[in-house]
Amino acid sequence: MNREPGGRTLATMITLIVVGVLLMTLDVRSQGTGVVSVLRTGAQTLVAPLQRATSFVVAPVIDLVESVSNVANLREENEALRRSLRDAEAQLHATSDLLVRLELFEQIYDTRSAGLDIGSVVANVMGRPDSMDGALIIDKGTAHGIAVNQPVVDSLGYVVGTVRSVTSWTATIVPITTTRQGLTVIVGDQQGSLVSQTGSPLMRLESLLALDPVRVGDRVLTSAGSLRFPAGLAVGEIVEDATPTLDGLVAMVRPFVNPDLLRVVVVLAWPPDPVSAVTVPTTTTTTIPGEDPDGDQNGDPDGDPDEDEGEGDA
Predict the structure, then answer these.
(1) Where are the chain's structural domains?
(2) Where on the phi/psi map is residue 188: left (φ > 0), alpha (ψ -120 to 50), or beta?
(3) Is 135 buried (19+), middle (13-18) or exposed (0-12) by CB count in 10 A?
(4) Max CA-CA distance within the chain?
(5) CA torsion, points 38, 43, 45, 49, in degrees to nearest 10?
(6) DSSP states of 45-87 as a string?
(7) CA distances (Å), origin 191, targets 210, 237, 242
(8) DSSP 8-state class, residue 289
């Protein structure tokens, strides 16, 4: 469009455009592809750097979003796992408690099989109403055959105490470690009295007729002379050597049972027949043919009520 003489800019531009179009046409025809394919290839060539740049910027953002989503999912899964773990632990504790109770009952059965052929009642320890005397409350009472003064042992047959009071469905037990009443025991062949000590878990063994010393670890058992327990029940063990003196033997004993740790106890039905323990002896009369059976010489077989028949029976 230059109107000046000799201006050739427009002609040169038109010539270059025409030559470029011809070259493109020849190149497309020589490759056997269409114009659209050439344009697509060129567009891809131009767009590829932009795609790489976009991917470099956008990919971290996508990864971050996915990571946040995964963290939320992991938190939910962790919380579900924690709930499952708590449920499993609760079941484990319940199973452990049942196993402990089963072991206790097996020990009780073994104790009976070992020769403690005495009627008994297994009871659970419900609580301790008075910390001063260490009394224990159990969930069995007169409705289950429990009576006052019956002896109480643990699942291993170790002496615990005696029944102090009883209701229809509960009973109160006083341990030997807190009662003021002494317990007749033996160590080896020597008999003595075992008494509690205020404020101490140990008990004091006193024997006025002891002749031999006692050693650490010697077992202390209930004596046949005891009116509260059957003979042969384990009570405790000697904790220090002791030698008899002019005043007798004094030794310290550690009981086998800690009342504060008891969960199950066994109440012994002892003596098995309390009535038979206090019976009136009777006499047997042998009758000789031809003699008066009651000795009153009156020929009356039933006896004369005015004679001393009752005294003879007595």
Answers:
(1) 13-115, 121-278
(2) left
(3) buried
(4) 192
(5) 180
(6) HHHHHHHHHHHHHHHHHHHHHHHHHHHHHHHHHHHHHHHHHHH
(7) 7, 14, 14
(8) T
Buried b (16+ CB within 10 A) or exposed e, 90-114: eeeeeeeeeeeeeebeebbeebeee
Structure tokens at 299: 């020929």
Q: Can you read off the two tokens belonging to residue 293?
A: 């059976």
Terminal Cα-to-Cα distance of the chain (whole angstroms)? 165
The single residue listed with the structure tokens 């004091």 is 204
Residue pair 235/256 in contact (Cβ under 8 Å)? The answer is yes
Q: Are strands 171-175 and 183-187 parallel, antiparallel or unpaired?
A: unpaired
Q: Can you read off the two tokens belonging to residue 196?
A: 């509690």
Q: What is the pTM of this model?
A: 0.54
Q: By the 8 A CB rule, do 127 and 137 touch?
A: yes
**What integer pLDDT is reported at residue 311 of this predicted model?**
41
The CB density around residue 142, as the number of other CB atoms within 10 Å, is 14
Question: In degrees to the nearest 10, what's the CA dihedral of 258, 261, 265, 268?
Answer: 10
Over residues 177-233, the pLDDT tens digits come to 988 888 999 999 899 999 998 888 899 999 998 889 999 999 999 999 888 899 999
Neighbours of 221 (CB within 10 A): 18
Cα 209 versus chain centre, distance: 44
Strands 183-187, 190-196: pairing is antiparallel
Q: How far apart, in whole angstroms, are the C-alpha atoms of residue 164 and residue 175?
A: 10
Domain 121-278 fold is Thrombin, subunit H (2.40.10)
* Angular region, 157: left φ>0, alpha ψ -120 to 50, beta rest: left
Question: In this predicted model, which residue has the larger pLDDT, 13 or 66?
Answer: 13
